[in-house]
Amino acid sequence: MKLLLQKYFKSLPVIAITLLAACGKPAETAYQKQVGIPGAKWDYKFQPEFQFDIPDTTAKYKVYLILRHDAAFPNSNIWVRFKTKQPEAKQFDAGIRIEAPLAATDGQWLGSDIGSIYEHKILLKPGKDYPKFSKTGTYTVKLEQIMRENPLPSVINIGLRVERLDLK
Fold first, then answer.
1. pLDDT of residue 166
2. CB 151 within 8 A of CB 97
3. CA–CA distance from 85 to each of 76, 89, 117, 130, 141 (Å)?
4. Smallest Cα–Cα separation from 94: which of 142, 150, 46?
5. 17: which DSSP letter?
6. 27: DSSP letter
7. Dist CA 128 CA 153 (whole Å)
8. At residue 41, what are phi and psi to the nearest 5 degrees?
9. Ramachandran assignment for 72, one of left (phi > 0), alpha (psi -120 to 50 degrees), beta (any other)
10. How far is CA 59 from the centre of its chain?
11. What is the pLDDT of residue 29?
12. CA-based diameter of the chain, in Å?
């Protein structure tokens, strides 16, 4: 038994190093913020802003739209306009329309649930869902709900997450 335990403990550092190497580099969260929707009713006029820095345009980033709603949310998707103000720009661009599916065809919510609250972390595509980060500096993003229903009920909060992937 003693010999077996000695072999086990000698191999632990090798196993730990192998597991850490297999995981690769962790993503660094450059920015994450969520904003509560007043009264859980997202009105057209309520357009939360998110401000973050992009220090390196050669780095790769992942941008996520974060949305929380309750079980009474009436739609299987949401349309959002993603407006961007580039560094040193005076105003926002016209914005890019994004459709985010929130439920499968069988009606099951796609996001993770905490009781009757559902959270969706929706990966956005650079150049399609938002402009590529071509300049270093501070970017500002404004999110606008563009659904037919106004105010849009059962939306608890909306947010943005930016992850830098290739750390130097």
1. 73
2. no
3. 29, 6, 31, 11, 6
4. 142
5. H
6. P
7. 27
8. -135, 105
9. alpha
10. 18
11. 65
12. 73
**What residue type is 166 in one-letter code?**
D
Domains of the chain: 28-164 (2.60.120)
Rounded Cα gap, residues 122 and 100, in angstroms? 7
* CB contact at 8 A, 74 and 149: yes
Q: Has residue 151 got a pLDDT over 80?
A: yes
Structure tokens at 81: 């306009």
Angle ∠(168,64,56) on CA atoms, nearest 5: 30
pLDDT, tens digit, 9 for 90 and up, residues 59-97: 999 999 999 999 999 999 999 999 999 999 999 999 999
- What are the distances in angstroms from CA 136 to CA 81, 97, 121, 130, 159? 23, 24, 25, 16, 22
User: Which whole-number Å values give the CA distances from 2 to 5, 9, 11, 13, 158, in the listed order?
Assistant: 5, 11, 15, 19, 56
User: Which secondary structure element, helix H or strand E, spans residue 167, and what is its range?
Assistant: none
Q: How far apart are CA 19 and CA 13, in angstroms?
A: 10
pLDDT of residue 168: 54
Q: What are 106's two structure tokens?
A: 């069988």
pLDDT at 79: 98
